[in-house]
Structure formats: structure tokens, C-alpha cells
Amino acid sequence: MEESFTEPRPPRLLSQSVFFPWGVFVLASVSLYLFLFFSTAPQYGINFDEAQGESFLGDRYFAFLTTGDHAYLELEKPMLSIYHEPDHPDYHARSGYARKNVHHIWGLGHTLGAATKWLLYTKLRVTDPTSAQHFSQALLMGLLSIALFLFASRWSSPLSGAIAVLFLLVHPLLWSHAHYNAKDVPELVFYSLTLCAFLEGLLRRSWRWVLGTAFLFGLSLAAKANALFLIPTAVLMTVIFFLWRGDLHYRELALKSRANFGRHSFVIALLLAPLVTALTAMIAWPYLLADFPNGLLKHIEFLQERGLEGTASWKGFPSYLLLITSPVLFLGLALFGGVVSLMQKGRPRLLALLLLPWIVVPLLRVSLPYAKDFDGIRHWMEILVPLALFAGVGTEVLLRRLSLFLQLSLRMAPPLRRIVQTIFVLSIFAPTLEWNIRNHPFQYVYYNALFGGLGAAQAADLPEAGDYWGISYRNAVGWLNVHAPKNSILYVAFAQHVVHYTEETWLRPDIRRRNIERLAPETRKRALSRGKGPQYLLVAERKGHLPKWFPDFPLHEQEKVHEIQVDKGTVYAIYRLAKSGESAQ
What we know:
The chain is mainly alpha-helical. It has helices spanning 19-40, 54-67, 96-100, 108-123, 129-155, 158-170, 172-177, 184-204, 207-223, 230-243, 248-260, 264-284, 287-290, 294-306, 317-324, 328-343, 347-365, 384-409, 414-438, 453-459, 473-483, 496-506, 521-530, and strands at 489-492, 512-513, 535-539, 559-566, 569-576.
């Protein structure tokens, strides 16, 4: 019989560390999350990158994987009849960038989106195609929540695991990105699952966990190249695990684990792991199969170019950005939980030491010379998972101390103590929940109250302080559909391709969107000042990405007819343009 190590059960705290109730609580929380996600999905748009044709690639990959027909990988051929449905945009006609730069776009997230679209839109017709394809991210977040709870229950406690799950599910940026980001959210999930499986493999010393980790690593690579940083993270975790000398129990565990490397099944699994990873990545991202190895070489060349686009200096801004775009209580409890864990002995300290590389490596990656970081924290959201685990530990420690105070100092009865503890937990999450609800569906512009919100970020001229991905355009188009006069003209100052990608289904048919970028400067001036019919200009500011003509355009002379503000900062604004010889005022 294969030898295995069983971690001691966590100590009972406040009689609330029983696995069953907290497991049910997590399942209920995930169910509520999925329901709310499905209900709110139609209120979120598509992002800048998705509007370049990423969903088109996912549809083609899904069709190939479910039929085996290699013709679906010949992207120039229009093959999907679904694009001719009256409520489905013609992705093929608007995906020229994706077809020409397929080696830029990772496939797994969009393929999973195509799968949920096939179920919820094609088969069941319960929602629109865009919302249906985004629902895959909700399922992935549910999977991560359950896995993280099981992981924390083994390494820490069910209570801290349940609280960690809540911190992830209500984080404003993660909640919003899950509604439209089919690259970074799948990567966050599979990256985290890979490290959880890897750490379980260190404990259990089983060939099954080795192959499971290799499989998840392959999925991570197919989701996004951030997965490459799993390698140094895993190396650091391994060194910490085997060299740590804080407790005799773990020294014995390390000796047993080293002896286990001699087992034939374990050795075979280690040898097969690279093959499992490579095959998984290639199947999950069929682009790699379409023209192997040329496709892989093109992708590697792209990564080399993209990875060296930054300045030659070290960068402290990512760390600063983490501080100002995360809820204050979340960061405070994460710091408290990490410090408390490191000060303890045995399992808590080991877990804290193992989580540190999970935080440091992604943050260090975007801080190095020549590294380029943009779009907020979406490129390194992986660190939110270990921070949530630390915050769960910190909250549990405070709950334990609160319980002892209520019991010993106030002589409070157990039922009343549980009520007070519940109120305490609710008070931790209440500010974030209130902010999410009050500013729905614009959570992607979150800056915490300690910093001063979006208004302070825009006043400080921070990069990407606003709707940097064009998500709000679905909301803006909806306003125009209701309020714009018949035969109006729409100009879009930033990322007009986001509106173009779905205008045949989202924009009222009589409203004509004009591509002002393609006009000569003189023609553009005449079009903006003497166009026929009511004219509107949609502006969602993204520093450094507004068109060249915009700074000289007399925006202050135009009538602002609609604006969305969050924390005294502007998400987007719509202006009605004055014609030549008339005043907009």
C-alpha cells in the first residue's frame, strides 16, 4: 500500500471549525455568486481585446474540438452559421486582427466561453451570446472557490477557507473582470489550481498529484503565458518545503518525501509530467496543433517582444497599484494574517512561507527592468488568491480573540456570541459590498476609499484610471438607443472598434456610427461641425490612447448630455456636438 502523509486536523476553534457547515456555506455562496453573475452579465460589455476577434477564435477552436474537422482551423473561411442569427454579431466579419495575429491570443478561455455559449445560447436560448460566453468565467470562479476552500481546510481551517472565498468573490476588480475577461480570469483560476495541486503533491507524495499538477499546468499555459512563472514559484516552494527547519514533524515529513522519490510510480510520473503538460496545452489551444512547430515559434517570438517593451528601470508602481485598488480591510487582514502565521510554529508558519513566492514572483515579474505593466492589476491578479488565504487566517484569529473576550470578560452566552461574531464578519465585508452595489456595473474603475476613489486617481493622472477597456460602451449605447433622436450620428473617441464589433445587435439601426479616424483632418473638422443630423461623441478616457485629433477638439464648447461618474471620477461621457454657427449651450 502506498505510503501517504495525513496532515493533522485543524484545532477546533469556537466550535465553528467543523467542516460540514462551512462547506455548505461555501456551496451556498458559490450558488449565489453564479445566480448574481447570470443575472448581471447582460449589463457588462466586451473589452478592447475581445473586440479584436478573440471570441471568434474561441468559437472556431470549440468547433474543431467537438467535430474534429480541421477546416475550422482555417480561419479565413467563414464556416459558422451561428453568426447569421439576428441577435448574434458577425464575429468573422469583424475579426481581421485576430485572424492575422492568432499567435498573440491564447485560446483556452475563449474556447470555454464558446462552450457555455453553445449551451446557454445555441441550445437553451436563455441569454444573449455575449453573456452566455462570459458565463464560463463564473463557472471557473466557482471551481476555484470550492478548490480553495478544500485546500485551506487541509492546510489551515475550514473557517479561514470560507472567509478567503468570500474575499475573492466580492473583490470589485475580480468580480468585474470575471464578467468579460476571458484571458486573465481563466489564467488566475488554473494558475491557482496548479499551485494548490502542487502543494498537495508535496504533502501526499503521490504520482496522481504529480500528473494532476502537470495537467493543470498545461491548462494554465493554454490560458496565458503567465503560467511560465509557475516554474520559479514551484521551485521556491519546493526549496522552502524541504529546507524549512521550524518543526521536527516537518523534518520527518521531508525525509519521508525524499525517500519517496525512489518509488517507481513516482519516478515514472515525474518523467511523464512534461509530456502531459505539453499535450494538454496543445489540445486546449488548438492553434498550436494547426501549424506545429511554426505556431509555437511565432508565439515565443511574440512573448520575447512583448516581455521587453517596458522601461529599463525598476518599477514600484505595481506595488503601489495593489495598495490603492484593493479593499483596505482585505489588505489589512491579509497583512495581519501573514504576520500572525509567520510568528506561529508548525503548519501556520509553513503555509505562510509557501504562500510568499505565490505573491512575490508575479509582483516581481512586472517590477523588473524592461517589463511592461498596463491595465491595472489584471496581468497579475494571481496574487489575490494567497492574499485572500492570509486574510482568511487574519479574520479567523480576530474571531477567536473576540470569542474569548465575549466569553471570559462579558460572560456572554454562546448563541449571543455567535450573533456578535456574525455581525463582526458582516462589518468586514459590508463596505465592499455596498460599494459594489452602489456602483454597479462599473466596478472595474475601483480605487479604494483610503486613496480617494476614481476621482483622486484621475486627478493624479494615473494610467488607466477609468474605463481603460471600453467595457462601459454597452451601457453607453443603451443610453443612446433610448435618448438619441432618429438618424443620429455617433463618433467614438477611444476604441471605437468595441462599438463596431457589436453595433449590428446592440446599437439602434438608425443610429450611424462613423469612423472619424479614417477621415483626413479637413474632412474630419467639417464632419464634426457640419454633419447632417444630430451628432454625438462618446468619450471614455484612457491616458495615452485618445486619438491625435482629440486634444485640439473644443470639447468644452459641446453639450454634455450624459455622464457616468464613480467616486467623483468619470467613467464615460456623451456629448452632443454643436453644428457650425450654433452654440451647444
